[in-house]
Design a protein that fits this description.
With about 220 residues, this protein is of the alpha/beta class. About 35% of the residues lie in helices and about 25% in strands. It has a six-stranded mixed β-sheet with strand order 5-6-7-3-8-9, sandwiched between helices. Strands 2-1-4 form a three-stranded antiparallel β-sheet, with helices on one face.
């Protein structure tokens, strides 16, 4: 579904993503782990087309409009309601009028936004704002989701609720989740990739990785 070959991105001559290679197959749920500055967000922005690579190749089995993206800085408009925002995003995605109504109804239901979809986004809790962002990513029923630090800044209950939402949307869909929370990676994902200094230093099934905390520290120790 996704193949990445020798992907490199440089800023001011420094490789932030350095000759990265991996592939993600259908229904893979992959955690992308790494310390701050390791290249996680840059890699995700390359995959979504936000950045252009210096070299390497990204190959999608389907067109890139089959990818839903929730960035770390959830780009919401506080003066809009979730309903208005989802209409705006649906138009940007080029959904037909008939599909817009159907898709918005689906994501409002599946992301549990019925109680707040007519409130202004600025009045919503962080947890509900993240749900709105996830709903926007799911518009058009993409085959692939890219979620960058989706539970960052949430309180413990909101984290649990949001993890359950993510699990709910894993059926027939591939997902890459960037996270700092090792327990989250083990709970949600069936595969873990660790990136450090722009390079993938581990890529394996979660079930095969023993003592993830120790392994993470060993592979990211400067």
């Amino acid at each position: 579904m996704l193949q990445v070959l020798n992907l490199t991105k440089k800023f001011n001559g420094r490789a932030v993503v350095d000759h990265v290679n991996f592939q993600v197959s259908k229904n893979d749920i992959v955690a992308l782990l790494g310390p701050n500055g390791a290249g996680k967000t840059t890699l995700m922005r390359l995959l979504t087309g936000f950045y252009k690579s210096n070299s390497g190749k990204i190959t999608w089995q389907k067109a890139s409009n089959h990818v839903g993206y929730l960035p770390e800085s959830n780009p919401l408009y506080p003066f809009l309601t979730p309903l208005q925002y989802l209409h705006f995003i649906a138009h940007l995605k080029g959904l037909t009028k008939k599909l817009i109504t159907k898709s918005i109804n689906q994501v409002i239901d599946s992301c549990q936004l019925k109680s707040v979809y007519k409130q202004s986004i600025g009045t919503l809790s962080k947890g509900f704002r993240q749900r709105v962002g996830l709903a926007a990513a799911l518009l058009g029923d993409p085959d692939f989701l890219i979620l960058d630090e989706p539970t960052s800044g949430l309180d413990p209950k909101q984290i649990i609720d949001f993890r359950q939402l993510i699990k709910k949307h894993t059926k027939d869909r591939s997902i890459i989740i960037s996270t700092h929370i090792l327990s989250e990676a083990k709970t949600i994902c069936d595969r873990i990739m660790i990136i450090n200094k722009g390079k993938i230093v581990l890529d394996d099934k979660t079930s095969k990785i023993k003592n993830l905390e120790t392994k993470f520290l060993q592979l990211t120790n400067d």
